[in-house]
Each structure stands twice: as C-alpha cells, then as structure tokens.
Amino acid sequence: MLRIARNRALQMGGRWRIVFVETLTQAAPANNGTQERMLRLLTLAAQMGGETMHITATNAESAAAKMLEEEKNQIALLIVSGMEYHRIFRIRRTVSETIAGYAYKKRIPVEVLQVSGQYRYSLLERFRMFHFRHILYALCSVGVAYLGALALRYFLSPALFRINTQNIGLLFMIACAFSAGRFGLIPGLVASVTSFFAINYFFTAPYYQNSFTSVTDLLNMGIFLSAAFLISFFTSQTRNVAEKSARRELSMQVLFNLYRITSGVASRQQALEKLCDHLARTLKIEVAFFLPPAINPEGIELTYPHDIILRDADVKALELCWKEMKITGLGSPSFRDSAWRFNPMLAQSGTIGVIGVKPNNRSQIYVWFGEMLMTIADQMATIIENIELARTMETTRISEEREKLRSMLLSSVSHDLKTPLASIIGALNIYHSRRNQLDDKKRTALIETALGEAERLDSFITNILDMTRLESKKIHFKQNWYDPRTPVDEVLKRLEYRLRNHKIVLHAYEEKTEVYMDSMMTGQVLQNIVDNACKYTSSGTTIELRMMTDKDKGFYYEVRDHGGGIPPEKMERIFDKYARLQMRDSQIAGTGLGLAICKSVIEAQGGSIKVANHPEGGAIFTLHIPQWRVAGSAKKYA
Description:
Structural class: alpha+beta
Strand order of the largest sheet: 8-7-11-10-9
Helix content: 40-55%
Mean pLDDT: 78
Distance between the termini: 84 Å
Largest sheet: 5 strands, antiparallel
Number of strands: 20
Strand content: 15-25%
Radius of gyration: 44 Å
C-alpha cells in the first residue's frame, strides 16, 4: 500500500498521506497486537515522504466519508485494504465498494483502489500480541465467583439456597463483567463460557456433570451465554473508550506541561533535567537526551541523565537517527531489535539533538504513543532552541549594555578628570612663569586653586577605584568596635580645605559609645556625602553632622545641608551609579559614583542609607549601622 501510494503520487505530481483509523469500539491495543506494526508502518511512511494522520472514528467507511467531504476535489486516489464489510440479508460488500458508492452518490471525483493481501505474523509476534496471563486472571475471577457460590451453599439452608439459585448466576455475571472490563473482550468471553459450565456442573441438577438433555438446559445455556456475551462486549467497549480517552488526556497533559515547566529555567541543562523528570514520571518510561558536544558538533553524546547504558544495537540506532534525521529503534523500520526508540529533535535552525525513550514493555508502543513522541521531540527542540536563543540574546544585550555604559563612563570620567588637570596645569604654569611678577596674594590663590583641584581629582580617582573593587568583591571589610567620632574627625581633617567656605556644625552623642563597623570605609562614605554637600550648596551655608542612637534600631549618622534639596524626580535614582553619566557639561563635575559607593559600603556592613528633603530646606542623608554599645560595656544593642 505504501509503495503504491508513493509511486502514484510521484506520477500525479501530488502529495500522499497514510491514515490510521482507530475505532472507539475495537479491541484494546494491548490485545489485538497490531499497534507496533501500525506504528512501524506510519514511521516508514513518514520516512518515504508521506504524511501521517491518526484519527478516531466509528469505522473506516465513516472516516473515509468524512475526509472526502472535508477535502472535496483534493483527493484524487483513495487506497484501502481488503477488509470486508458485512450487511444484513447476506449482502457482502468490501470497504472499497462502500466508499466508492458513497463517492458516486455525493458526486465526488475520486478513484478508489482496493489492495488485497494479509500480513502474516511470526510465532514470536503472535506470542507478543496476546497476554495469556489475562486468561488466567479471567479464570481466577470465575474461581472467586465459585467460592462465593460455595459460601452461599454453606451458610444458607437447602430450601433458601434453592430459592436463591439466581444469585449464583449473578455472581458469575459479575466475574464476566470484571474480566471484560479489566482485561478486554477475549478474557470476558472466556470467563462467560467457563462460568456457564461451572454453573451447569456444580450448581445445576444433576450435579457434577454437564447435561444438556432437556430443552430447559439448552434455553438456560443460551440465555446465560447471551447475557454474559453482551455484558462482556459492552463492558470491553466501555473499557476501550475509557482507555482511549485517558490516552488522549495524557497526551494533552504532557504536551501542555512542557512549556510550563520550562518557563522559569535559565539554562539548557536545567531544562533537560525538568523535562526528563516530567516525561519519566508522567509516561512511566526511561527518557534520555543526546546532544552534540561543543568540541565535535558532528557527533552525538549522552547529555542527560548520565547513568544510561546503551547496547550496541541501541548505539547504532542512535547514530543512524542523528546522521539521517529519521526515527529509529523500537517500533520503526530501522533497528527494530533495539530496546529504545530514538526521535530527532528538529527545529527551525536544524537538528538540535535526539530524544530517546525506553518503554517498560512493548505494550506501550501504540500509534498515539509514537505520534506523541514526535510532537514532544519537536516541541522540546523548540524549547531548547528558544533557551539557547534567549541566552545568546541576553549575552549580546549585556555585552552591548556594558559597552554602552563603558563608553558613557569613559566619556564622563575623561571630562571630569581632564577639567581638574587643566586647572592644576594652568595654575602651576602661571605660578612658574610669572612667579616674580605676582604678589603674595595671587601666588597663594594659584596654589590654593591647584590644591583644591588636586583634591577633587583625588576624590574622582578614589571613587572609581572603590567602585571597581566593590564590584569585583575584592574589598574585605575589617569590622570592629570603634568610637563613632573617629571617622568623623578624619573626614573633617581631610576636607578642611574643601570646607573653608562652609560652616560645619557637629552634634556629637554625649554618652561614650562604640559602633561595630569598618572605620576607614565608613569614613569614606561620610566624606562622599559631606563633599557632595559642599559641591551642591552655596558658599556660606551650614552643613550639620549629627550622631544618635536607638536601643532597638541601632546607631545613626545624619548629614544635612541647607541647600536647595534634591528634585523629586531624581530622588529614586540618586544612588544609581550611572544616573549622572548623561548630564551635560553645564552640570557640576563628578562621576556620579560617590553615592553608589556609599550605598554599597553601608549595605555590605549590614546597614542602610536613606535620603530625604528637610521640610525647612536642604537634603538629609541618614546612615544606619545596626550594632552599637556603650563604651567599655559588653552589652550590645541592635
């Protein structure tokens, strides 16, 4: 059938498709033994260039009629097998005749071709087709019904037992329904026949012999067998429908959860681990992912999990799947003896890798299972491709952002470094060339200008170096108990020249206290804040520095200036190290790293820094350090 379809499609210049029709009322896939062969044929059809379709319908005729209606004038040839369709009154018609009659009635121009021939199963395949243990289970259920009947005979008086003989038949009916519903139609029919002979032999007079001499015996046999057969048939149908519905629900659940469980993963390895765990837990199968190594993109190797052991046949099937991008292994035309089934994971960029599955038993190899694996492989290829693409895009974005920030930082830093250097060079050049022509006042002014610009340059370079060390985590804080006045005195001494035009008011804490901090780094924080207060406030204004404690919350440094305050729109980004990189030349010089350093240093010591505008004007910076104690005391407050 496949060869005919392919050759005719090539002759007609069209496409061809193989359709597997699964009826709702047919026997369970585990019992009819054709599922693995059907899956192999569908896989072969896909490798031969045909399309595959799996549909559920009442019968093959209704499926063909539905396709002809939906794809009217698009189907030129319909090839069907030689299955027979029986009508009442001994009228016998094949499936092809029925479909051709329907097409003629609906005036659909389609050629219907019947292909005869029957697949011959080998002895091993026939053994795999049928689960003989199900027959034993059915006989065991009949045995349980027999024991129940014996219990009725034992506990009831002979008169009551004869009155309730119909209950015996009901017990065996339950056994028949259980066998059909649990194991399929054939075990249900075996249980029906066995139950009839058990009732006739053990519980019908004359006892302990099978007698069908009277019309009543034959009538009872016919009624019981008919009822048992009908119960077994409809119960098995219900079981088949329930199984198919459960399979469809399982497929939808697996496919739906693939993207959900990988939505928050950050790497390919993490995605593979989650996907492997999800598939193995949901489908009760072994799952393995094979991806090409970085050093040899042409090869293929086991990526996850790492404890999978493959046989020689499995390895050959895997390599063929990777090289030729086709399904191999169990349920396929290539390497059918392999215990694994390998599906290539195809994405838009090409073959991503291979997914391998190993069912616990061959009864899991249904047509729907193979189709679901193909869909899973394609979706997982897309997921892995998206993860790799997202990682590449994120790396590119970070690289571009880093380059952009580096350029902005270099531009700002070069300007801020060049300005004080130019001032220093200019002042010293004038002092050197016209030293004898200048009076003492002008010489002092030039020296002070050079000194101030040198201190400003030192502040810029210190901030840049500190931020570099903080980001690389090369700063090791040396926290110990220090007098909170120590860093304050050092800052005021270092900034003495910068503060010459401002008034400093120090509100010291009266009680002798000690604070658990890194005194040098905390002093750098205070220096940056006080230096900002000098730059952003007018000459002659006051800068207040206050120290205070709270037994329940910790120790506080508070620096307040009496300037214009901070604009509300800049309040949120004031500690952002790149907030000032795009400011124009008219702005006050500075790299904008000082407050970012302050925030990093204080938070690294377990504290915090906040900023606010004072109601009476100016800005207030509050430094919080959690641990402090009274000097000389072992009692700590936090």
